Amino acid sequence: MRNAGASIDPPTDPLAAVPMPTSTRGDRASKATGRQAGPPGTPKNGASEGGRKLPPGVSPDIFGRPETPPSRNAPSLPPATPPVQPWVLEGKPERRPIPAVPPETAGPLAEEAGGGGESAPPSRRRGRRVLTVTLAVALILFLGYLVPAILMSGKVLPGTTVSGVDIGGLTVTEAAERLRARLDERARKPIVVQAMGIRQQVYPEDAGLSLDVVGTIEQAPSGFPNPIQVVRALIGEIEIQPEIDVQTSKLTAAVQRLAQRIDRPVREGEIRFKGLTPQVVTPRDGRRVEVGAAVAAIRDAYFTTTEPVTLPVTVVKPTVGVKKFTEARIVARRAVSAPFTLVAGFRRAELSRQVLAANLTFVPAPDGEIVPRFNAKGALAAVEKQLVDPAEAPVDPTYDIVNGEPKIVPGRPGRGVDAEKLADAITKAIREGGSRTIEVTLTTVKPRLSENELRSLGIREKISEFTTSHPCCQPRVTNIHRIADILDGYIVKPGEVFSLNGIVGPRDRARGFVEAPQIVAGRLVNDVGGGISQFVTTMYNAVFFGGLKDVKHTPHEFYISRYPAGRESTVSYPEPDFKWQNDSPYGVLVKAYYTDTSITVQFWSTKRYDKVEARATKPHSFTDFPVETDSGPDCIPMAGRKGFTIEVTRVFYRNGTEVKRDPPIRTVYRPETRLTCVDESSGSAGAEDSADSSDSEVSSRPSRR
User: What spans are recorded as compositionally biased (Low complexity) (predicted)?
Assistant: First the structure.
């Protein structure tokens, strides 16, 4: 066996047992010089293998071991593993493998690179560099977020504004104080609204609108900020919308008050009579503020804009156009062409053409037709006593004043004409024609109110009183006393509108009225009922100082010295009427007292005001009167008086303090003609009989307000 005698102990150096190859170059050198080379691997004269000289201390291994075939006697080593060849992909250039470095030559380099004897791949080295850079950047970013976040924590983030007010960097309390200081004036600024050419102002405190400072601050980030919030605070601006506190009920009420000036009810067409002549009341569009949408518009505009807010308005169309009313006027003219005769047993009464016209109108029906509507109750005021025994008529409960205290006078039910059936019968006769004699139905009629209702009306004290004077014993005084008797004890319910013509009806001889002078077309003429305007003027002043609502009053054409200028009213039948409304929550008792030279009207109720005062301007804008003569048999002389203008304002007081005042009422009086009556047969003038215009029941122009 070869090498059997050799020692089996491994040499100290595993490669020492392998004979080192002799450099060919070295052999050639030896042969050339005649020197014999030393043992393999032994340098001669400082030369390395292969005959190279090396600097002192440099190992020949730096060049690697020579690739010489192993010695025949050296043990064979396994062949080196060939490097893995990558698959060659189509379309891509072939990547040549990096030659493997023999382990024996890689050692120093690997150790130098810190690879523990093996060289790290370049991709791993790149990955380590990326990881290092990423960690460094992440640390920088984290510190860049953490430091400002700590500084911002607990305060409103920098750059935060509310309606232009910077609250950044402040505590919540400081931010709230700044908002109140900077935005309070703006929060109280009135909002301008407009609609249909009308501009009005809405004050936020009256409309339940205010800035919710706490709610606004709650929207601003003020805790420990997240990274996005930090970035926004450092490079941008955080705009917070103000939070608004809205009391919807108050805002709705404010819009409804605004709507009172803007809304206009639709005016349905109608045919009314002026005297016996039917006249068409032209239909007119109405308009209505859409309250819900208006509330939303004002709420959205508050604190966001200074521009006027346009309120949404809906146009309301009338049911029937004017053309149909023009056609129906022919029917209306025929309706008052003759009186109606009412029959109740053996009793008869006539509805005159004038009474019929005063209580008849033509109005649109739901189907678009024009139909007659008859106010039977108003018409019966003049004739019912002719159809029913007064002893059987119903009596309303009322109050009498005893020792300055109101005492109840009981009422009772009675017999009366069925007003609804009468209205149906007359409207049917007008539509279809036929007989104008109507058999009325009598029925049990209850009083207007019961005694229990009367007690609940709060009639306990006198709230106003007014007296006017007149000469004794004239025919007009009879008329004043007659109307006073009719209205004495009348109760006006809360909210009810008092209409003198509706309650009294036409003044006629059957009810005790007589002829007396009144003004017609600028002249004094005698007519039944003349003089009752003095009662109306007296009642108007009781309304004025009682603090009740004036609905309709018509001043005389000429000023009459016995009346307060600017505080008087005329009346005639059917127009002009005198109307006022009991706008208090209590009932109003009308009491009338008279003497031969005066008439007094008192109102009893519950006082709402300590005092109501009249403030009048001095008469101004005087106009001269004309002078005329008349020789007619019905001439009534007139003294003549200048015309003028005056304004009167009503002022209300409560607890000694003014609480409100009405708009001024302007009255323009025309000059009264100086009229001299001439007797043509004698040639004498009746100037000495000229009279003051004692009364008027017709005014050619209403008061100007």
Answer: 103-112, 679-688, 696-705
Which residue matches tokens 């053996």?
346
The single-letter code of the amino acid at 192 is: V
Q: Are 569 and 466 in contact (CB under 8 A)?
A: no
What is the Cα–Cα distance from 105 to 119, expressed in whole angstroms?
A: 11
**Strand stretches in 375-512, DSSP E:** 398-402, 405-409, 414-417, 437-439, 442-445, 461-469, 491-492, 497-499
Q: What are phi and psi of 229, to 5 degrees?
A: -65, -35
Predicted TM-score (pTM) of the model is: 0.57
Q: How many residues does the chain have?
A: 705
Looking at 50-54, 354-358, 422-426, 514-518, which range is the least confident one? 50-54
pLDDT in tens, 216-236: 877 766 555 656 556 665 555
Q: Domain spans of the chain? A: 12-53, 127-318, 335-456, 458-705
At 371, is the secondary structure helix, strand, or coil?
strand
Sort 5 into a burial class: Cβ within 10 Å, 0-12 / 13-18 / 19+: exposed
Percent of the chain with pLDDT over 90: 39
Instruction: Give tens-digit pLDDT for 324-343.
Output: 888 889 999 999 999 999 99
Please choose, from the candidates 43, 86, 79, the residue with its C-alpha nearest in 3D space to the C-alpha of residue 61: 43
Find out whether 57 and 64 touch, Cβ atoms under 8 Å.
no
Residue found by looking up tokens 């047993």 in the block: 345
Chain position carrying tokens 């017999």: 415
Which of the 8 DSSP states describes residue 457? Answer: T
- Tokens representing 604 are 């009893």
Residue type, 541: N
Provide the token pair at 473: 């014993």
Strand-pair partners of 72: none
- CA 417/CA 344 separation, integer angstroms: 9
CB-based contact 314:287 (threshold 8 Å): yes
Q: What whole-number distance in Å separates Cα of residue 199 and Cα of residue 261?
A: 10
In the numeric block, which tokens belong to residue 334?
A: 């025929």
Amino acid code (one letter) for 304: T
What amino acid occupies position 6?
A
Q: Does domain 335-456 have CATH number 2.20.28?
A: no
Helix, strand or coil, per DSSP, at residue 616: strand
Residue 146 host element (H or E) = helix 122-152
pLDDT in tens, 659-668: 999 999 999 9
CA distance 131 to 8: 52
**CA 407 to CA 425: how far, in whole Å?**
41
Q: Per the omega criterion (within 30 degrees of 0), is the bond before 283 cis?
A: no
Rounded distance between C-alpha atoms, residue 299 and residue 319, angstroms: 35
The rounded distance, in Å, linking the Cα atoms of 358 and 352 is: 10
The contacts of residue 594 (CB under 8 Å, 6+ apart) are: 480, 481, 484, 600
Do the strands 160-162 and 165-166 form a parallel or antiparallel pair, or are they unpaired? antiparallel
Strand, helix or coil for residue 89: coil
Per-residue pLDDT tens over the stretch 630-650: 777 767 777 778 889 999 999
Helix axes 475-487, 533-545, angle to 10 degrees: 50
Classify 61 as helix, strand or coil: helix
Q: Distance between CA 263 and CA 316 in Å, rounded?
A: 10
Q: How far apart (Å, rounded) are the C-alpha atoms in residues 497 and 493?
A: 8
| Rounded Cα–Cα distance for residues 50 and 30 (Å) | 11
pLDDT of res. 631: 72
- Could you write out the DSSP letters of every residue in 475-524? HHHHHHHHHHHHHTT-EE-TTPEEEHHHHH----GGGT--EEEEEETTEE
Amino acid in position 298: I
* The two structure tokens encoding residue 19: 């004979």
d(C-alpha 498, C-alpha 503), whole Å: 8
Listed residue (338, 292, 336, 285) closest to 311, CA to CA: 292
3-state class (DSSP) for residue 235: helix
